[in-house]
Amino acid sequence: MDEETIQHAMLVFGLSLLVGPAVGGLAGWLKNLFWGVGVGALLIGCAGLYAAATIGWQRYQSIAGTASVQGSLVEFVEERSKDSKGRTTVSRAPVVEYVAADGQTRRVKGLGGGLSDKEWGDPVEVRYSVADPAQALVADFQNMWGAVWGLGLFGLFPTMFGLFFTGMAIKEGRPAGKSRSPVESSATLAQQRWRTRGTVLANLVFLAGFAVCFLYPGESLGKALGAGFMTIGTGALLHFVVQSFPPAMEFEFRSILAIVGLGFLAFGYGAWMMLA
């Protein structure tokens, strides 16, 4: 990958962590708290989505010039890192051996914590550059798309919260409107039945997600958590849809259900792909 492009994207996101709170604080001081939180979160969120899109596009382009080959796991090596408090963390990074089209045997190291469910000698897909077979990467989700997924989460949630608080700020700034008319505030019998059935279905799906986490067949913790979280997210989104039936719940309250649903879906998908 183009390291300069990655560094640029990460620099933009890093600066947003400083600029977002500063601009948000100024907006909050000039306007109100809702504007401050909304603007600050949107700046951080948009920067995160920009970084995710930039790195994702660069990764897509780099993969286009690669060839796939089946390698084999030969060992795990320990990697040590320190956090901001000086605490040392040890992870095991997989080393995969592969043979490129030129017949030479090479090795590539994956990200720490990857392929934890594999054993020595197990087959592992590798993608290497056709122009330079020594440039390769382990072709699993964590190594290929993990950074894009992570930055996407860091961009998605601040963006959703930013839109939520910005909407609240706009609503608060409007003059007091009229209350709903009787037609808007009352539901027909058919609408009530659909809302009741939809609520029951959403609750069943939501609760089923917790059961899936514990009862999912197989020994893969990642797939169990992923399937459970995605089911819970689906239940929350169903609640959002049901509460949008007339007479709809206030949008700011419904949007919380949408944020929770999308959040569980995103985390569940990541757990399914990276921890499986």
Mean pLDDT: 85
**Looking at the structure, what is the overall shape?**
globular
- Beta-strand level of the residues, as a percent range? 15-25%
Largest sheet: 5 strands, antiparallel
Which ranges are low-confidence, i.e. pLDDT below 50, for 5 or more consecutive residues? Answer: 178-184
Structural class: alpha+beta
Number of separate strands: 5
- Euclidean distance between termini CA atoms: 25 Å
Estimated helix fraction: 55-70%
Q: Give the radius of gyration.
A: 24 Å
Number of helices: 7
Which sequence of SSEs, written as H and E, runs from N to C? HHEEEEEHHHHH
- Largest sheet, spatial ordering of strands: 3-2-1-4-5
What does this protein look like?
It is a single chain. The chain is an alpha+beta fold. Among the domains are: 66-142, OB fold (Dihydrolipoamide Acetyltransferase, E2P) (Beta Barrel); 180-274, no CATH class. The chain is 62% helix and 16% strand. It has helices at 3-30, 33-64, 141-173, 182-185, 189-215, 221-242, 251-274, and strands spanning 66-82, 88-99, 105-109, 123-129, 136-138. A five-stranded antiparallel β-sheet has the order 3-2-1-4-5. A hairpin with a 5-residue loop joins strand 1 and strand 2 (88-99). It starts with a helix and ends with a helix.
